[in-house]
């Protein structure tokens, strides 16, 4: 999991101030983890109008928080999700709901918050083309993923990538990105993440309970437990 943490830069400036900041961050993360569902308690999410993979009436719901700049999210999507999808989602046992937690660009103090821009691009595709367009855009974004500490998801690059999504009206997509039309939706997802105590990505909740790892075996076991299998 890629975790939310303080930047590694400028640690040599004002030692006392850095120590105080580190202490405050540690206290904040401790408080956040105390609110998380790692203790077995369930967290409730507002999933209305969110991208869904699978059948709407599936008995088990996976809520997945991701950042498109997160290499562990890319690994989850490309290495582990295909197995989860074939065994649980395609068979109607579970559905997966995607939410955004774009923190890496800010965490690395990048000049452009391309974590948020990439999330906005996926949401623009969703607004225009629904779940299918969202999934196609998401796959393209993860394939195109660049380094965490570099800006790669610029608006111009996102427009280029959207050109590979079948069925998207490029003009409408460009307008959506240029005008930040989905910024509010991304912000709403981020607020849900913060309220749930999410500290990194990917964070996966199965019927509201945080799964401790994102590998297929662990997630599958959580789905089985939630469905009584």
Automatic annotation (TrEMBL):
Keyword Protease attributed: no
Pfam families, per the entry: Thioredoxin_4
Residues spanning the membrane: 12-32
Family annotation (InterPro entries): Thioredoxin-like_fold, Thioredoxin-like_sf, Thioredoxin_domain
SUPFAM superfamilies: Thioredoxin-like
GO molecular function: oxidoreductase activity
Positions of the Thioredoxin domain: 18-228
UniProt keyword annotation of Transmembrane present: yes
Keywords assigned by UniProt, alphabetized: Disulfide bond, Membrane, Oxidoreductase, Redox-active center, Signal, Transmembrane, Transmembrane helix
Family: Belongs to the thioredoxin family. DsbA subfamily.
Protein name as catalogued: DSBA oxidoreductase
């Amino acid at each position: 999991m890629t975790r939310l943490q303080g930047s590694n830069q400028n640690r040599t400036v004002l030692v006392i101030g850095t120590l105080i900041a580190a202490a405050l961050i540690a206290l904040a993360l401790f408080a956040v983890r105390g609110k998380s569902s790692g203790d077995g308690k369930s967290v409730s999410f507002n999933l209305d109008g969110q991208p869904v993979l699978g059948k709407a009436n599936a008995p088990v719901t996976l809520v997945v928080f991701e950042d498109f700049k997160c290499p562990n999210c890319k690994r989850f999507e490309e290495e582990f999700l295909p197995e989860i999808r074939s065994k649980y989602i395609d068979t109607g046992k579970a559905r997966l709901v995607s939410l955004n937690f774009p923190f890496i660009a800010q965490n690395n103090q990048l000049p452009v918050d391309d974590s948020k821009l990439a999330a906005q691009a996926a949401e623009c595709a969703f607004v225009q083309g629904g779940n299918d367009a969202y999934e196609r855009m998401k796959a393209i974004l993860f394939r195109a993923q660049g380094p965490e500490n570099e800006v790669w998801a610029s608006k111009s690059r996102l427009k280029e990538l959207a050109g590979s999504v079948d069925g998207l009206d490029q003009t409408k997509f460009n307008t959506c990105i240029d005008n930040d039309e989905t910024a509010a939706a991304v912000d709403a997802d981020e607020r849900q993440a913060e309220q749930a105590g999410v500290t990194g990505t990917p964070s996966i909740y199965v019927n509201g309970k945080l799964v401790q790892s994102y590998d297929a075996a662990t997630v599958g076991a959580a789905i089985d437990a939630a469905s009584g299998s």
